[in-house]
Amino acid sequence: MIHSEVEELLGAYALDAIDDSEKSDIEAHLDSCGRCRHELARHLELASLLSASPDTAPSALWQRIAAALSEPDPEYAGRPALAPLVSIGVPRDSHRKVRAVSGVLGAAAAVAAVVAVFLALQLANLRHEVDQVRAAERVTALDQAVTAALVSPHTEAILTSTGHHVEAEVVITPGGESYWVHSSLPPLRRGMTYQLWALVDGKVVSLGLFGRDPTGYASFRLGRNSSRLMVTAEPAGGSAAPTNSPVVMSTQIHL
Amino acid sequence: MSLDLSTASDGSLAMAVARWEEEALAEIYRRHAASILGLANRLLRDSRLAEDVVQEVFVRFWHRPERFDPDRGSLRAFLAAETHGRAVDIMRTEDSRRRREENDAAAAPLGATIEHEIIEGVLAARVRRAVAGLPSEEKQAVELAYFDGLTYRQVADVLTEPEGTVKSRIRRALGRLERELMAAERSEELT
Fold first, then answer.
1. DSSP string, A105-116
2. Are A78 and A188 members of one domain?
3. Do A243 and A143 lie in a common domain?
4. Residue A57: its chain B contacts at CB < 8 A?
5. Domain range holding A7?
6. B1, B21, B30: best to mutate for the A interface, most A CBs within 10 A
7. Which residues of B fall within a CB distance of 8 Å from A131?
8. Smallest CA–CA separation between B109 and chain A, in Å?
9. Which residue of A has its CA nearest to B186?
């Protein structure tokens, strides 16, 4: 699908009014066209305003949602848990700090909601800059952790592709805290993600997802019996077991 | 580092959700749940199903916050798109269709249009004015696509218009609405 064809469909795409058969063509184009991505973002913003409401959402519904948060991820029910790797530098706590939120969502909150929406169009750029600053702060924290690991006793694992065209480097501390520090993995198409796996006692265990473009650092924890690391390309959201051949794989690791 | 929830940007709240901070999710709910519940209600015409969709969207966001990419749009737009997609999935099931038809027969206001669904409030009023000012063929195409959950091809069938005409109308309508809203913002700044 050429640029002008996709451009004509951006409005319909923003309204979720596209046949599945066309979606993948549009999404492939979006990956490489900043102009279309920009226009789509504006259309999506506008579409979300069509249902603008100054009402307050029912507090009873929030109570239901809050109660459901402690349940396992329904999309992964019965499947091995994935420990999310957040390569943008937002490591999740290893255990959940779930605190009850109680009370009625009041009028002040409704006003705040209206104000927040009101500002959405005007403040989008500013917000993005603030987010970037905050993301940069977190990346800095991860930088420090990686530096600390590198100057302390550690093991390095190099993951390579069969032709050695692509490689990645992982730093593993004696305690198992590990850091993805470098890779030349090419970006994947939309709808795919890189997934990191360890070979543990002969079984392949998921360590987490890297997203489509794993540049920068990420952290994860490696169990003592892990003997090898590998990365596969999987559908977005990850897989319970690898569905594709490894893109890169490490030599044996000795922890 | 604690986050001042009431003044935090949506992006910061999303990052706090990535750290399993439930209060951040509650703040996101306060800001955006009413709108997406309204959207789900409009599509499904069944308040219980609509609440189920909103619950599903929030719980999914809790477990998978990395699916929100701030480079691709605001959190509000992301949640609306998630809600729309899930509600349309449900609309396509037989059971839901039957229930909506029953509800339609019982309670749907005849001739309801986008502007009737948007209730008072500064932004809602602006959006309502902007939508009301759309050429009727553009408004119709947007309504059928967004609030009836039709693809642009189905819209073209319904309106017996060429598909190309419908997709152009939708795109033009969104561009026009954006310009109208920005102009309204500027004129209020000046007065």
1. --HHHHHHHHHH
2. yes
3. yes
4. 29-30, 33-34, 37, 54
5. 3-49
6. B30
7. 9, 11-12, 15, 70
8. 17
9. A122
Is residue A193 in a domain?
yes
Residues A70 and A186 occupy one common structural domain: yes
Contact B139/A at CB under 8 A = no
Verify that A119 and A43 share a domain, yes or no: no
- Inter-chain CB proximity B21 and A68 less than 8 Å: no
- Long-range (24+ apart) CB contacts under 8 A made by A97-102 are A97/B19, A97/B20, A97/B21, A98/A69, A98/A70, A98/B20, A98/B22, A99/B22, A99/B23, A100/A66, A100/B22, A101/A62, A101/A66, A101/B22, A101/B23, A101/B26
Cα nearest neighbour of A192 on chain B: B67
The model's pLDDT over A42-79, given as tens digits with 9 standing for 90+, comes to 999 889 888 877 777 888 999 999 999 877 766 654 43
Chain A contact present for B102, CB below 8 A: no
User: How far is A103 from A59, CA to CA, in rounded Å?
Assistant: 8
Structure tokens at A231: 């990365």
- The interface predicted TM-score of the complex, written ipTM, equals 0.82
Residue of chain B minimizing CA distance to A123: B9
* B28-86 tens-digit pLDDT: 998 899 999 999 998 888 889 999 999 999 999 998 888 888 877 889 999 999 999 99
Nearest chain B Cα distance for residue A254, angstroms: 31
Domains of chain B: 1-108 (1.10.1740.10), 112-191 (1.10.10.10)
Q: Please state, in angstroms and rounded to a whole number, the distance separating the CA atoms of residues A22 and A158.
A: 40
Query: Which amino acid belongs to residue A7?
Result: E
